[in-house]
Design a protein that fits this description.
Layout: H1 3-13, H2 16-38, E1 40-43, E2 48-51, H3 54-68, H4 72-80
Antiparallel strand pairs: 1-2
């Protein structure tokens, strides 16, 4: 069974609220990956500049913001390695 198959199976069993979170995270990752692919380097005699789309810039800003929150990076990594079955449907805030 491929990773895509496993993910599809997990999503079929997940509540809609969790599926929506997974979708939002996938969109975030896709945008972050597009930033890397859409960079254009502009050079002149005095300096270099990078030209990127507005959406890419917003993605960069969101990533910087999220990673500025203490322990957020660790939380994201932990969440990515957690099985959907081990997730709770209620928030513990």
């Amino acid at each position: 069974m491929t990773v895509r198959d496993k993910l599809s199976k997990e999503l079929e069993q997940a509540p809609d609220s969790l599926v929506e979170e997974v979708l939002n995270f996938c969109i975030f990752l896709k945008q972050r990956q597009q930033v890397k692919m859409s960079d254009i380097k502009v050079s002149d005699i005095n300096s270099n500049a990078v030209l990127i789309s507005e959406d890419a810039w917003r993605g960069i800003q969101e990533t910087i913001y999220l990673l500025s929150i203490p322990k957020m990076r660790e939380s994201i990594v932990e969440g990515l390695s957690t099985s959907i079955h081990d997730c709770s449907e209620t928030l513990e805030w």
